[in-house]
Amino acid sequence: MRSFLLFLANDERFKNFMLRFKFFRNTAWRFVAGETLQDAIRAVREANSHGIRGTLDLLGENAQSQEDARKATAEVLAMLDTLRAERVDCNVSVKLTQLGLDVDDEFCYENLREIVNRARLLEYFVRVDMEGSAYTQRTIDIVLRLRKELENVGVVIQAYLYRSEQDIRDLLAARTRIRLCKGAYLEPETVAFKKKQDTDANFVKLMKILLDSGLYHGIATHDDAMIGATKQYANLRSIPKTSFEFQMLYGIRRDLQQGLAREGYNMRVYVPYGSLWYAYFMRRLAERPANLWFILRNLFRD
Ligand SMILES: Cc1cc2nc3c(=O)[nH]c(=O)nc-3n(C[C@H](O)[C@H](O)[C@H](O)COP(=O)(O)OP(=O)(O)OC[C@H]3O[C@@H](n4cnc5c(N)ncnc54)[C@H](O)[C@@H]3O)c2cc1C
After folding, report:
1. pLDDT in the model for residue 302
2. Residue 112: which CATH number?
3. Element (H or E) spanning 286, and its range?
4. What integer best gives the mean pLDDT of the chain?
5. How many folded domains does the chain comprise?
6. Quick check: CB of 130 below 6 Å from ligand 1?
7. Contact (Cβ atoms closer than 8 angstroms) between residue 289 and residue 1
8. 177 CB under 6 A from ligand 1?
9. Is the pLDDT of residue 144 over 80?
């Protein structure tokens, strides 16, 4: 089921078919804050009121023209200006294929550089999300290149990839802040663990490397076992609760997000918004096929 839903995440015909249905769109709002920046800011403010920080993601990926990538870049730049004006506690997440990685690496680098530079002036941090394994090396290369010039940029590493431990070591050597997650894309066995227990074991191993590094990293998971292992390791090594942060996705395990914040852990919620929500939403369904029930419920409500 997971593989099938991830396959459909990239299927244009299925997407065009499903987007016609109101019940499908209504289900997406459980995981997406809304279509506009103001919707997203409202969601971040609500999180802030519980002591939870945000990271805003303008949805969109795989821009196929310079024009589309420039448009996304301009929107992210405008988002940064609005965040500063609205004074919400939040940073920004971007995807490199949204900024033109499919078009040209150098063009994409310049777009990211412009965003990170503007964010630096406004005192924001920019997190580069990690996409499918075809993009891993180029994403890391671009982040490491930019990291030589600017400090306020970090990247995501996926525990399901065999290569991730080496990638973490390379990124730490350049003092780069990392968000660790399990990984959300359809990957072949040649590059990624297929069994949940193998990915989980690698997650714990990588989490320990990150916590020992002395840099401020994000541990992004909703999995009680991963959260428990992180708390336990931090305790064992006397690592203060505020030396790292937990991160979760908008609409998932709100109780746990608020509970961790109340316990004194730094907590950040990833808040996606915009009209291009289809692929993001399908990945959330794939993570937990039980979410398909929400779709059915909305179908019978309509
Ligand atoms: C802040 C953040 C940023 C991320 N950025 C990236 C990225 O850049 N690249 C990338 O590949 N992946 C990214 N991910 C997604 C990540 O890779 C996983 O696919 C996702 O977090 C599910 O894994 P899990 O650690 O929650 O564990 P799982 O073992 O998948 O889930 C553990 C438990 O969490 C709950 N849960 C998990 N997912 C859902 C869901 N969709 N709906 C309802 N409940 C759910 C369930 O209770 C489940 O039993 C990000 C995740 C987070 C939290």
Report:
1. 54
2. 3.20.20.220
3. helix 278-287
4. 94
5. 1
6. yes
7. yes
8. no
9. yes
The residues that are catalytic are 129, 179
> To the nearest whole percent, how much of the chain has pLDDT over 70?
98
Residue to mutate (ligand 1; options 91, 143, 177, 181; most atoms within 8 A of CB) = 181
Cα atoms in the Cβ-side hemisphere of radius 13 Å centred on 204:
15
Residue 282: closest CA among 291, 273, 269: 291
For range 84-91, the mean pLDDT = 94
> Average pLDDT in the 13-20 region?
84
Q: Which run of H or of E encompasses 11?
A: none
Q: What is the mean pLDDT of residues 62-74?
A: 97
How far apart, in whole angstroms, are the C-alpha atoms of residue 232 and residue 251? 26
Burial of 21 per CB tally in 10 Å (0-12, 13-18, 19+): middle
Instruction: Give 84: exposed, middle or buried? Use CB within 10 Å, 0-12, 13-18, 19+.
Output: middle
Encode pLDDT of 34-51 as tens digits: 999 999 999 999 999 999
Domain that holds residue 49: 32-276
Average pLDDT over residues 150-158: 98
Ligand 1 centroid, distance to 249 Cα (angstroms): 7
Q: Look up the pTM and report it.
A: 0.95
Does 15 reside within a domain? no
Indicate whether 156 belongs to any domain. yes
Q: Is residue 300 part of a domain?
A: no
Q: How far apart are CA 217 and CA 265, in angstroms?
A: 13
